[in-house]
Amino acid sequence: MADYDELENEQQMDCALDLMRRLPPQNVEENLVTLLEILPEMTEDLLSSIDQPLKIRQDSKSGKEYLVCDYNRDGDSYRSPWSNEYDPPLADGSVPSDRLRKLEVAANEAFDTYKEMYYEGGVSSVYLWDMDDAFAGVVLIKKVNDGTVRSKGSWDSIHVVEVLEKGRQARYKLTSTVMLYTVASAAKGDRLNEINLSGSLTRQDERDLPVEDTGAHIVNIGRMVEDMEFKMRNSLQEVYFGKTHDIVNGLRSAADLSEARNRERLQRDLFGQLKSRGE
């Protein structure tokens, strides 16, 4: 009976996660609340498994913005990567070791530059925490188009990395999630003619890389995050925009269909000739 209950719980969890993956990411909080009302016994598992859009807070000391999520939360307080203090104040809140805190400060400065290079704005935060014989961290990036033009949208990147140090090498396990939503309309506020493209994507990577000194971790993690974001951005572009273009063309071609068929036939003939030469 216990095995049956455990199997049923696993099936419910799989169904809940599959459902959340198919729903618009900009509505994930509302949908998650509804799901928790249906499955209250799975609250802890669902909250720890479902990524939510990142929220922005401001550090009261430095005035800088930072991102909050479960990884920098302790109770109802969130730790700022700039001051290393919790808001609301928490006397016994969890903080990284001195060695890791220095690395965290340097990583935040590095990814602050990274987001300016690739996002031209937005907010980034890096949080690190100690583990047995290892450490882990998360790189968070959020960019929002505020909708002052006829389109609006949001990009949320969540990169969770686990680092296992082995002498002058380290193994990095990266799990990246991107949540994207874009809304375009003929005129600002025209909800009748809106086009909404939204969704999320999760990918993983694992590498063994050399570590000459502590600072090398920032370089290695930065390179992995950069490579992963390029791949995921290209995948999202192909899925959301490439497929949409194909569907529209399938419904109504922008050019004469006979010309399109002639081009396809010519491409097939050229490919066949090249293939025969190669053989």
Would you mind describing this structure in some detail?
The chain has helices spanning 2-22, 28-38, 43-49, 98-118, 216-251, 257-278, and strands at 55-58, 65-68, 73-74, 77-79, 86-87, 123-131, 134-145, 151-166, 169-184, 195-210. The strands form 3 sheets. The chain has a 5-stranded antiparallel sheet with strand order 6-7-8-9-10. Strands 3-4-5 form a 3-stranded antiparallel sheet, with no helix packed on it. A two-stranded antiparallel ribbon has the order 1-2. A hairpin with a 5-residue loop joins strand 7 (134-145) and strand 8 (151-166). It has 6 helices and 10 strands. 42% of the residues lie in helices and 30% in strands. The termini are far apart. It has 279 residues and is an alpha+beta fold. The longest helix is centred in the last third of the chain and has 36 residues, at 216-251.
